[in-house]
Amino acid sequence: MEKESIREMREEQEYEFFSPYAAHARDTKGRERDEPQCDIRTVYQRDRDRILHSKSFRRLAHKTQVFIAPMGDHYRTRLTHTLEVSQLSRTIAKALRLNDDLCDAIALGHDLGHTPFGHTGERVLNELCPLGFAHYRQSIRVVEVLEKNGEGLNLTWEVRDGILNHRTSGHPSTLEGQIVRFCDKIAYINHDIDDAERAGILTEDDIPKEYRDVLGSTTRDRLNNLIHDVIYSSEGRDHISMSRPVETTMMELRQFMFDHVYLNSIAKQEEGKVERMITMLYKYYEEHVDEMPQEYIELIGKRGEPEPRVICDYISGMTDQYSISKFRELFVPQAWQKK
Asked: pTM of the full predicted structure?
């Protein structure tokens, strides 16, 4: 009799331990391209590892979360945001006996399509590109098309569904995807408060007392209360939810952050420069498509991808510093020197 693999033992353990509402690795809807199973890892563990080892994941370390090119070592980047979403998601999934491997994969992949300079870059590309641009759709394009020189990562359907639907208006099909959708907001609201306080834009006393009375007056208390509320509101249910008072207060606090931080003139004082820079890069590559890297040129020539989409692929994949470097190379005169 053939010996049971480590993966098969793990899959059996999922059935024995997980909630009946969990996504079991053995029951995945599969990948777009069939491939042999790993003898050690489940499909969701493999997806997590593929994302973790991807180039687009590494680039998140050098992409803006809120504050553009902050002078300080402790402000969040798009990577640290992603890691915090992963940690919160796994905590909730474990408490609810759901599939924390699936949560981890979705969380690690949810922002792979983000542009340099955060939502400012996203908005500019959406305005410039006739096909439109949204980071959640671009994240799917990264894992399906752009990674591994056009092969994509060949992730499972459940991971791709969670990545696509992590936005506020999304409707993830799995409870694990629903957890990530909540944790994305829980993470960025709280770490952005922390960063805003570090930047001198906010103090805890600036946050309305009615929000602090419900959620807490420190980042630690707010995270603790929000995580517990999701767990207690979702336990034994076929969907993930928060209690009405806590969710309402969290969304009001989110709007407060838009009004006082995300649209704050201090935090956004460099935004106009970013808009002009991204615009000039986009228009340059419209006229000089052949100057993009070969892998992008081949998307147009060999796969028939629309030029505006591929230009967005290239620019959205840039880190903050790389986009500045390309702008300087293309548009800033260099000092003459004798060859």
From this structure: 0.95
